[in-house]
Structures are given as structure tokens and as C-alpha cells.
Amino acid sequence: MVAIAERAGVTHGLLHYYFESKDRLYEEVVRRLFGRHLQLFERLRVDGNVTSARELVLQSFDLFWEHPNQVRIMLWEMASGDDRVERSMTAFYGAMADGLAKLSANAPRRRKLGLDPRDVYVSILGALVVYFFRDPAIKQLFGDNRFREEDRIRRRAHIAALLDLLL
């Protein structure tokens, strides 16, 4: 907490005043990161249409691009099996489930079987987050410097094309 306070330019006491522990500070960081996505799902919950879902995913990509470490935090939390973040993110997960359920209910009969909007979202989320992995395979495919503007444009277009195929 001392190192965090120093990097933030505040006193250790002030940091403890607002966040009594590292866990509470971490939960707040995660809550704020996911809060941006929560706003997107809230819109989907209201609109419940394919256009909204497509835009949600593309805006999620933009948020991940702006905050690439969010993907690492998400994956860490999923792998940890700890439910501390899940407890603090109840609103996010509720809005996600409600929005996707409404999308499923409003979806026109699919030409292709097996295109439940929930499954599409999970598949697209997987494709979307892989771009932000820092593993040897992704590094080999895209190189060390893979976060340039032309990469963002190309990848966002790729995600949009996948959405157009699946939604």
C-alpha cells in the first residue's frame, strides 16, 4: 500500500482512509474498469436488439484497447476461482445476463442453427480478448509492437466482420 500511495502521489494514510486494504483497493479498480462495460450492457438491456449487441462488442473492444491490462485482470480473476470480484460485480453480471437474455428473446429466427446470442457473445469475447494476450504465440503472430493505430483499426474491423457473420 505504501508503494501504491507513492505512485499515486498521496499519503499512505489517505489511501488507507479510502481503502482499508489492498483487496478493497483492487476491488475498486476492477469495479471501475467493469463499470464502463456495465454501461454498455445497461443499454443492451434496454434496447435488446442486434444493432445494440454489435455496438456493445465494438465498444468493448475500444475499452480494452484503452485499458489493455483489463483483459489480464479479467483472465486472472477467472482463473483464480476467487469470488471476491464476482461479489462486487453483481450488477455487471446481472446486466450482462439480462441484456443477452433480452437479445435472445428478441432475435429473429436464425438462418443458421446454433447462433444463440449468448454463445455468439462468448465466442466474440474470446476472439476479442486474445488480441490483448501477452503470450509467445500471439507475439510470434503479431510481433512485439502490436498496439499501433493500424493494428487497432484492422482488429476492430475483424471483430465487426465476425459479428456481421454471426449476428
Outline the structure in words.
The chain is globular and about 50 Å long. With 167 residues, the protein is mainly alpha-helical. The mean pLDDT is 81. The chain is 78% helix and 0% strand. It has a single domain (22-166), classed as Orthogonal Bundle (Tetracycline Repressor, domain 2).
Low-confidence stretches: none
Number of discrete helical segments: 10
Radius of gyration (CA) equals 18 Å
Mean pLDDT: 81
CATH C-level label: Mainly Alpha
Overall tally of domains:
1
Q: Quote the beta fraction.
A: under 5%
CATH architecture: Orthogonal Bundle
Give me the strand/helix succession.
Answer: HHHHHHHHHH
Q: Give the distance, in angstroms, between the N- and C-terminal Cα atoms.
A: 45 Å
Report the CATH topology name.
Tetracycline Repressor, domain 2
Task: Classify the helix fraction into a percent range.
Answer: over 70%
**Number of β-strand runs:** 0
The oligomeric status of these chains comes to single chain
Q: Biggest sheet: strands, sense, closure?
A: none
Structural class: mainly alpha
Gross geometry: globular
